[in-house]
Design brief:
The protein has 188 residues and is α/β, with parallel strands linked by helices. The chain folds into 2 domains: 43 residues, no CATH class; 128 residues, Glutaredoxin (3-Layer(aba) Sandwich), CATH 3.40.30. The protein has 5 helices and 8 strands; from the N terminus they run E-E-H-E-H-E-H-E-H-E-E-H-E. The strands form 2 sheets. Strands 5-4-3-6-7-8 form a 6-stranded mixed β-sheet, covered by helices on one side. A two-stranded antiparallel sheet has the order 1-2. The protein is globular, with a radius of gyration of 23 Å.
C-alpha cells in the first residue's frame, strides 16, 4: 500500500480500505517516521561533528587584542578538536579591515560577517571579545570572556574558556558556565 502526508501531517491510506486498518497503518507510519527522524538527528551530530567556539569582534574595536595570546594558544592547541569562528558584528566592517585585524592577531581562523545580527540574537554576547562555546547538538556550554585578563591589568587569573574546553573534552561537566567580560558593549 502507498501512503502520503497531507497538509495537516495526517497519514491517509489509498486506495481506501476499512477505517480500523487506516488508523493502525497511520499510527505505524507515524512511529516509523519518528524513528527515522531520531536516527537522522543522531547522525547529524555524528563523530564528524565538533564543538564550536564563536568569539565576537569588530574590526575597529581593540578589545580583542587583550585576548590575543590566550585565544591564539587555544586556536593552536584545540584546532583539531574544536571549530573556531570569529563573528564580526559591526555592519561597517569590510573584508580588508578584517583581514588586517586577523593578520595583526596572528590567528588562522574562520570568520563570519554577521550584518543581520543573527549570531547576536542567538547567543546574546555582551561585549566585544565575548565568546560562546557550543556542543555539537547546539547546547551552550560556556558564554562570556576568554579569560579575566582585562579585569586584572593584563594578568590572567582565570582561563574561563580554556577550562570549559578542557572540562568538555575530558567528559566532565563544565564547571564555570559564564565569565564576566570587559570591553566595548555590543549593541544592535
Amino acid at each position: 500500500m502507498k501512503y502520503f502526508l497531507n497538509i495537516k501531517n495526517n497519514f491517509r491510506q489509498y486506495p481506501s480500505g476499512n477505517s480500523a486498518n487506516n488508523i493502525s497503518n497511520s499510527i505505524n507510519c507515524k512511529a516509523w517516521l519518528c524513528g527515522i527522524l531520531i536516527v537522522l538527528t543522531a547522525f547529524s551530530h555524528a563523530p564528524n561533528s565538533k564543538p564550536h567556539v564563536f568569539i565576537f569582534a569588530a574590526a575597529k574595536c581593540p578589545c580583542i587584542y587583550s585576548h590575543q595570546e590566550t585565544f591564539g594558544k587555544l586556536l593552536n592547541t584545540y584546532k583539531d578538536k574544536i571549530d573556531f569562528t570569529i563573528v564580526f558584528v559591526d555592519r561597517n566592517d569590510d573584508k580588508e579591515e578584517i583581514t588586517d585585524m586577523l593578520e595583526n592577531l596572528g590567528w588562522k581562523i574562520n570568520y563570519i560577517i554577521d550584518k543581520k545580527g543573527n549570531y547576536i540574537k542567538k547567543y546574546h554576547p555582551k561585549v566585544f571579545s565575548d565568546c560562546v562555546f557550543v556542543s555539537p547538538p547546539g547546547v551552550i556550554l560556556y558564554k562570556g570572556a576568554v579569560d579575566d585578563s582585562p579585569l586584572n591589568m593584563g594578568r590572567v587569573v582565570n582561563f574561563y574558556l580554556k577550562d570549559a574546553i578542557e572540562d568538555y573534552l575530558s567528559n566532565k561537566p563544565v564547571k564555570i558556565k559564564e565569565g564576566k567580560g570587559l570591553g566595548c558593549l555590543i549593541t544592535m
